[in-house]
Amino acid sequence: MISQEKDPGTPATPDAPVGTSRAHPVTLREVAEAAGVSTATVSLVINKKKNARIAEETRERVKTAIRTLGYRPNAMAKTLVSGTSKFIGLVADGVATTPFAGQIIHGAQDEAWKHGYALLIANTEGNLDLENDAINMMLEYKVRGILYSTWFHRTTDIPETLREADFVLVNCFSPVPGAARAVVPDEAQGGQSATEILIRGGHRRIAFINATTPAPARDGRLEGYRAALEAAGIAFDPDLVLEAYPDQEGGYGATAELLKRGVSAVYCYNDRMAMGLYDGLREQGLSIPGDIAVVGFDNQEVIAAHLRPPLSTVSLPHYELGAAGVRLLLGLDEAPVDSALKIECPAIERASVAVPSKA
């Protein structure tokens, strides 16, 4: 290849030292003039064309001019040439405004940075027009791919515009098996871990207060409860499965019916329900865990760690969901062919379940 250099002569004196404000961004031509070379040579150096016949001294002179002038390459121009960018998009329906689910963003952002990408985030609050605009904008920026996330675990329809990109569903999945890569919490494993906390505490008559609202979590957490009982040799009793609305009032309202069952321990669908159950049990003069042990699900820090006693629970792995989504997108991890990649929900044991006596 023929060299693109000009006679260097005496390099031009940069007209704006580092730290000096300028009326316009530094151009490629200004760098070329400062280094005493052609704009083609500057472009070859910037794009690290190793096969270009450019003397090392000339390369260094160009790099010095770039540093001195504070030149920044045009990222959009490079994107048009390469067909992709160093951005990963994240479109969410409410993750950014939900404290514990916001960890999805943190996990995705940290993993993206680790691999040299920046995250573009659009929080749509469920507005379909805004969602469509956000995806179109990301397509225009030629993002490496898009993470499409929901703030609670559920099935989702895949927007048509999303199909124009490489994408991964996070905390949601397509109802059509194999239609899209997805990463979700392992609800059944989480339900089993929650029940096992109580079994390790010596309990055998264990109730489960499930949610009334249909959701993958409702089915998976019940499945895990039954699996833990079976593994421990405890017969499943359908009379010990109650249903309530998954909030504090739901847990409180279930207290009276629960006490008719003569149980020694309760696993609640979520931490808010457990918080209501705490109130109901105390009104009946019962202590936790002395009279009844309680386990929740979600590990909402503003609830679980600050109840008295602190609540044993299972954590939803939001941070790891975001990180795993990026890894799937970049091809660093593989998803099962006909199902979502399931992320473990770790158990958090606190004082709401008494440690069994060793005596």
From TrEMBL:
<feature type="domain" description="HTH lacI-type">
    <location>
        <begin position="26"/>
        <end position="82"/>
    </location>
</feature>
<dbReference type="GO" id="GO:0003700">
    <property type="term" value="F:DNA-binding transcription factor activity"/>
</dbReference>
<feature type="region of interest" description="Disordered">
    <location>
        <begin position="1"/>
        <end position="22"/>
    </location>
</feature>
<dbReference type="Pfam" id="PF00532">
    <property type="entry name" value="Peripla_BP_1"/>
</dbReference>
<keyword id="KW-0804">Transcription</keyword>
<dbReference type="InterPro" id="IPR001761">
    <property type="entry name" value="Peripla_BP/Lac1_sug-bd_dom"/>
</dbReference>
<dbReference type="InterPro" id="IPR028082">
    <property type="entry name" value="Peripla_BP_I"/>
</dbReference>
<dbReference type="InterPro" id="IPR010982">
    <property type="entry name" value="Lambda_DNA-bd_dom_sf"/>
</dbReference>
<dbReference type="Pfam" id="PF00356">
    <property type="entry name" value="LacI"/>
</dbReference>
<dbReference type="InterPro" id="IPR000843">
    <property type="entry name" value="HTH_LacI"/>
</dbReference>
<keyword id="KW-0678">Repressor</keyword>
<dbReference type="GO" id="GO:0000976">
    <property type="term" value="F:transcription cis-regulatory region binding"/>
</dbReference>
<keyword id="KW-0805">Transcription regulation</keyword>
<keyword id="KW-0238">DNA-binding</keyword>
<protein>
    <submittedName>
        <fullName>LacI family DNA-binding transcriptional regulator</fullName>
    </submittedName>
</protein>
